[in-house]
């Protein structure tokens, strides 16, 4: 496992992105509690190939099983999967691994990438910034926790549409400026 000190910049960038975009714009109404309570585990993975990345993902699933004080994990890729298509291949393999390891219904994966784009949307559409992050990142989510939170959240099915509407209102330049600033701030 990589040394956290070695990757302090990447973890700081991810935390800043969470604070300013994901929490600041309420893209994920559940993130603030976990951020404030420090129950998010940030794991950096320098893997450039799918197999070692999946091995790291398996370790992170096991960490969540073993440690209930960790609510969620962000697996941050520093070297590999910079191309969005290669990242999508990893995501497919990661979801297959989740199933193979018997974690379907226990965990789910959310995906974030610097070049994330929704199918059918122009690359620079503001809506893509709901899933754009400083670095390629897999978000490991406990399904039971998500179900619990969603059960008390009014109209949870509206979250993605609300996020897209807000992103479009803010415009792509708003997000580009934040992500550029975050990249410079921690270098």
What would you note in describing this structure?
The protein contains 7 helices and 4 strands. It is α+β, with helices and mostly antiparallel strands and 187 residues long. It has one domain. It starts with 7 loop residues before the first helix and ends with a helix.
Features:
187 residues; alpha+beta; 4-stranded mixed β-sheet; 7 helices; 13% strand; globular
Question: Quick gist of this model?
Answer:
With 187 residues, the chain is α+β, with helices and mostly antiparallel strands. The protein contains 7 helices and 4 strands, in the order ααβαβαββααα. Helix 1 (8-23) runs antiparallel to helix 7 (172-185) and helix 3 (50-66) packs across helix 4 (84-100).
Rg: 16 Å
- pLDDT average, as an integer? 93
Question: What percent of residues adopt helix (DSSP H or I)?
Answer: 40-55%
- End-to-end separation in angstroms reads 22 Å
The largest sheet, given as strand count, sense and whether it forms a barrel, is: 4 strands, mixed
Low-confidence stretches: none
SSE sequence, one letter per element: HHEHEHEEHHH
SSE diagram, text form:
Layout (H helix, E strand, L loop, with lengths): L7 H16 L7 H6 L3 E6 L4 H17 L5 E6 L6 H17 L6 E6 L24 E6 H10 L6 H12 L1 H14 L2
Parallel strand pairs: 1-2
Antiparallel strand pairs: 2-4, 3-4
Helix pairs in contact: 1-7, 3-4
